[in-house]
Amino acid sequence: MPDDTQILGHCPDCNERITTAWTLVEYEKDDGTEGVWAECPGCGDVVAPE
C-alpha cells in the first residue's frame, strides 16, 4: 500500500502542503525528469507542486 502522506511539495498559488494522496498525473518531461500534477487541498487548483 502506498504512503499517501509523503509530501510532493507546496502549492505555488496558496502555499498549502500537497501530499501524494492528491496526485492526479505523473509524467516524464522532455529532459527525462519526472513531473507531477496534483490537486491542491487548500485552493482546489490543479498545480505542479513546488
Could you explain how this protein is built, in words?
Strands 3-4-5 form a three-stranded antiparallel sheet, with no helix packed on it. The protein has one domain. The mean pLDDT is 93. It contains no helices and five strands. The protein is globular and about 30 Å long. It is mainly beta and 50 residues long. The chain has strands spanning 7-10, 17-19, 23-28, 34-39, 46-47.
Q: Please compute the radius of gyration using only Cα atoms.
A: 11 Å
How would a crystallographer describe the biggest sheet? 3 strands, antiparallel
> How many helical stretches?
0
Low-confidence stretches: none
Summarize the helix and strand pattern as letters.
EEEEE
Task: State the helicity in percent bands.
Answer: under 10%
Mean pLDDT: 93
First and last CA, distance: 25 Å
Strand order of the largest sheet: 3-4-5
| Structure summary, number of beta strands | 5
Brief rundown of the structure:
The protein has strands at residues 7-10, 17-19, 23-28, 34-39, 46-47. The protein has 50 residues and is mainly β. It has one domain (7-47).
Can you give keywords for this protein?
50 residues, globular, two-stranded antiparallel sheet, 42% strand, three-stranded antiparallel beta sheet
Task: Present the secondary structure layout.
Layout: E1 7-10, E2 17-19, E3 23-28, E4 34-39, E5 46-47
Antiparallel strand pairs: 1-2, 3-4, 4-5
